[in-house]
Design brief:
One of its GO terms (molecular function) is NAD binding. This is N-acetyl-gamma-glutamyl-phosphate reductase. Keywords: Amino-acid biosynthesis, Arginine biosynthesis, Cytoplasm, NADP, Oxidoreductase. This protein is of the alpha/beta class and about 300 residues long. The protein has helices at about 15-20, 40-50, 60-70, 100-110, 115-130, 155-160, 185-190, 230-240, 250-255, 295-310, and strands at about 5-10, 30, 55, 75-80, 90-95, 110-115, 140-150, 175, 200-205, 210-220, 245, 270-275, 280-290. It has 2 domains: about 5-115 and about 295-310, Rossmann fold, CATH 3.40.50.720; about 115-290, Dihydrodipicolinate Reductase, domain 2. It contains 10 helices and 13 strands. A 7-stranded mixed β-sheet has the order 8-9-7-10-13-12-11. The chain has a 6-stranded parallel β-sheet with strand order 2-1-3-4-6-5, with helices on both faces. Bound molecules: NADPH dihydro-nicotinamide-adenine-dinucleotide phosphate (NDP) and N-acetyl-L-glutamyl 5-phosphate (X2W). NADPH dihydro-nicotinamide-adenine-dinucleotide phosphate (NDP) binds near residues 39, 58, 60, 153 and 291. The site of N-acetyl-L-glutamyl 5-phosphate has 11 residues, from strand 9.
Length: about 300
């Protein structure tokens, strides 16, 4: 029997992209809800309870409600793409490359929380340096980022694409999250193994898909003797043996004049760069990804496949 997959929120931005990735998969049976019934709680409850894996592509509150709908069902497994369960101790964090043991944790989990798009970049850069002893306890980490506007879901897409929208956004690039209380900070802190919450400043550019996450650091304030080379080596060792996260060689990074935020649009991989001048005082760590690829839908499909491999 083919595993039954239900995407709750399949007509939204993340859900649609997961559906696209599953098109043509003859190894799966996709359960589907008509678009007009997408908020029909009774139909959703029925489909959620009929699935082997339910992928939640909903706002946080609706995700919590969906989890409650399967509370009495000890068979259905869940992947939640929302923020609702990303620091919950009994949910596996769905970032397979963050540790060598993480794929097995995801494979065997009943409940998997898909990481946020920004945290995928930030944790991807920070965690290996914490584990290697390069980034000291208490270092004041900052994370600056730009996302494609699909990161804001249907509402932001309409605000940017619909010229007649009542709350139209016409800026080519804008900062938001200005009170510095973004919902992604707790997962960056927890899974980045940080003692102090990072200062996180996100922004949106007028392009649909793509993302740059930057973590600038002072070399003097890292472990004694840290260089661009030793940071690069720690990342390269951490990500050896897998094909999703690519640590770009230092010599290749040194030749680049600029980074295009849309370079990986449509792809489910992530590139990590180490920038700076040998002998200089600073290093800028950069992650490049698609907010809807490795940042959301691509990661969800990767997690589903891991869970199905159990
Ligand atoms: N977009 C991105 O890049 C990323 C998104 N995520 C997360 O994925 C989740 C979905 O986001 P996204 O796809 O962008 O959002 P969208 O707004 O594009 O889609 C959400 C979908 O959920 C539906 N929905 C909302 N409330 C309910 C409800 N109570 N019951 C049933 N359906 C409901 C919406 O229907 P309706 O059209 O009626 O509103 C819509 O179809 C969010 O938690 C988001 O934070 C995570 C990483 C990246
Ligand atoms: C551009 C934009 O608005 N982005 C969203 C994050 C998108 C995302 O990653 O969703 P999760 O919060 O579920 O992780 C935001 O900042 O809230």
């Amino acid at each position: 029997m083919k595993p039954k997959i239900f995407i709750d929120g399949e007509h939204g931005t993340t859900g649609l992209q997961i559906r696209t990735r599953m098109a043509g998969r003859s190894d799966l049976e996709l359960l589907s809800i008509p678009e007009a019934e997408r908020r029909n709680a009774a139909m959703r409850e029925d489909l959620l309870n009929s699935a082997d894996i339910a992928i939640l592509c909903l706002p946080d509150d609706a995700s919590r409600e969906a989890v409650a709908m399967v509370a009495g069902n000890n068979r259905v497994r869940i992947i939640d793409t929302s923020t609702a369960h990303r620091v919950a101790p009994d949910w596996a964090y769905g970032f397979a490359e963050m540790d060598k043991t993480q794929p097995a944790k995801i494979r065997d989990a009943r409940h998997v929380s898909n990481p946020g798009c920004y945290p995928t970049g930030a944790i991807g850069l920070i965690r290996p340096l914490r584990q290697a002893g390069i980034l000291p306890d208490g270092y004041p980490v900052t994370v600056n980022a730009v996302s494609g506007y699909t990161g804001g879901g249907k509402q932001m897409i309409a605000q940017i694409e619909d010229e007649n929208h009542a709350d139209r956004i016409s800026a080519p690039h804008f900062l938001y999250g200005l009170p510095l209380k973004h919902k992604h900070v707790p997962e960056m802190k927890m899974h980045g193994l940080l003692e102090r919450a990072p200062v996180f400043s996100p922004s949106v550019g007028k392009f649909a898909q793509g993302m740059i996450v930057q973590v600038p650091l002072y070399l003097d304030d890292l472990a004694a003797g840290t260089t661009l080379e030793s940071i690069h080596a720690a990342l390269a060792v951490h990500y050896a043996g897998q094909s999703i996260v690519d640590v770009v060689p230092l010599a290749e990074s040194a030749r680049l004049a600029r980074i295009d935020a849309t370079e990986l649009a449509g792809m489910d991989t992530m590139k990590l760069f180490v920038f700076g001048t040998p002998g200089g005082a600073h290093v800028n760590l950069v992650a490049l990804l698609d907010n809807l690829g490795k940042g959301a839908s691509g990661a969800a499909v990767q997690n589903m496949d891991l869970m199905l491999s159990a």
